Amino acid sequence: MACEQIRAGDEQEEEAGADGAMLWSIQEAVERQTLQIGASACGATAVVDVLKALGVEVSPEEADRCVRTRQRRNESPLPDYLLSRSEAGATHSQLIQGAQEASGGKVAGRFFHFHPRRSVRPILWLARWIRRGAVPVATMNMQLAVPGGEEVPDAWHHQLIFGVAPNTVFMTNPLDVCSEDEVHQRLCSESVLLIRREDVLQRLTADCRLSGWSESRSDPRWRALDVEGQVRQVALEDEQEPDRPELVHVTIPAAYSSGVTLFALRESLLGQELLAAPELPLL
Questions:
Q1: pLDDT higher than 90, residue 243
Q2: End-to-end CA distance of the chain
Q3: Using one digit for the tens of pLDDT, what is the confidence trace for 5-18?
Q4: Closest to 283 measured CA to CA, from 113, 120, 122
Q5: Rounded distance, CA 159 to CA 181, Å?
Q6: What is the rounded CA–CA span in Å between residue 254 and residue 40?
Q7: DSSP labels for 270-283?
Q8: Distance between CA atoms of 74 and 69, rounded to whole angstroms?
Q9: pTM: predicted TM-score of the whole model, two decimal places
Q10: Is residue 137 within 8 Å of residue 258, measured between CB atoms?
C-alpha cells in the first residue's frame, strides 16, 4: 500500500524535508524485509528486521519466542475475547525485551512516547538517529488517519522505519510509503482499540453475563470507558434498529503505547547515548 504524500507547505517544511536518511534503499528493503511471520506477530516481524539491520541474524521462530506474541482468543466468551483483543500482539516493552534476548544481549532498545503530543518534527528527529545508525520501529494506531472510503483497520501495528525523506516515511511489513502527517497522527494516539460491532454481536450469547465484568478488571480504564455500557448499547441497537446502529465500534483499553522504539548495539557509543536520552518534550 502506498499512502498519499503531502506537499511541503512553507519554507520551514521544505527545509525540514531536505533532511532525509535511509537505512536501506527501497530495492534493499524489497529484498531484505521480512513479511508478517504469523498472526498478531508484526512486533516479532519488526524485531527480525531490526536485528538484521544491526548485523544479528535470528530466525523468525526465535524472534517470536523471545517477543512472546500474544494471540486473540477468538473462541472465548465475549469478556475474555475483549481482554485478549486489548493485549493481542506485543507492546514496545516486549519488542525491547525480545530484541535483547534474541540477540544474546547485544541489542538494546529505547522507547520514545509521542502521546501526549510532543514538540518534535518526526522526520527531523528520525533522520538524526537513522544517520547515526539507530533502527526505528513505529508503534502506531492504524485506526487513525484512515483514508476516505477505506474500512477502519482492526488493530495497531509495529513497522520498521527504514528511511525518511521530505515529508515521507518508508516502512516495511508491508512496504509502505506514507506522509509525515499521516504517520504522526498514528504515532500520537491514546491507548485505545476499536472493536467492530459485528465482532461483539457474534459473541453476545444468551448466557453471556454483562454485569460486573468491567469492575472486575484490574485496569480501571475498562470502567472509565464504560465498556460494559457500550456493549449493552450495541445489544439494544441490534434489537431495535439493526440496520441503523449509532455505535459501530466498541472502544476498549489497549495495552500498547504509541511512539517509536530506537534500537542500537548496546555496547556502542550510540547505544549508550540512546539509553541515556531524555523523553521528547511535551508540546
A1: no
A2: 31
A3: 323 333 344 444 45
A4: 120
A5: 16
A6: 14
A7: HHHHHHHPPPPPB-
A8: 15
A9: 0.91
A10: no
Q: Using one digit for the tens of pLDDT, what is the confidence trace for 78-112?
A: 999 999 999 999 999 999 999 999 999 999 999 99
On the 0-12 / 13-18 / 19+ scale of CB atoms within 10 A, 222 is buried
Among candidate residues 4, 17, 29, 24, the one with its CA nearest the CA of residue 123: 17
* 82 CA to centre of own chain: 18
Q: Is 259 left (phi over 0), alpha (psi -120 to 50) or beta?
A: left
Q: Which amino acid is at 189?
A: S
Cα–Cα–Cα angle for 109, 110, 113, nearest 5°? 140
Mean pLDDT value across residues 118-137: 97
Contact 110, 262 (CB under 8 A): yes
Handedness of CA 89, 95, 98, 102 (dihedral sign): positive
Distance between CA 278 and CA 166 in Å, rounded?
A: 26
Name the residue type at position 255. A
Q: What is the DSSP string of the chain?
A: -BPPPPPP-SHHHHHHHT--EESS-HHHHHHHPPP--STT-HHHHHHHHHHHHTT----HHHHHHHHT-B---TTS-HHHHHHHHHH-B--HHHHHHHHHHHTTT-EEEEEEE--S-BS--HHHHHHHHHHTT-EEEEEE-TTSSPPTTSPPPSS-EEEEEEEEETTEEEETTTTEEEEHHHHHHHHS--SEEEEEHHHHHTT--TT---TTHHHHSSSTHHHHTTHHHHHHHHHHHHHH-TTS-S--EEEEE-S---EEEEEEETTSHHHHHHHHPPPPPB-
Question: Residue type at 38?
Answer: G
Query: Pick from 282, 7, 20, 29: which is nearest to 169 by CA?
Result: 20
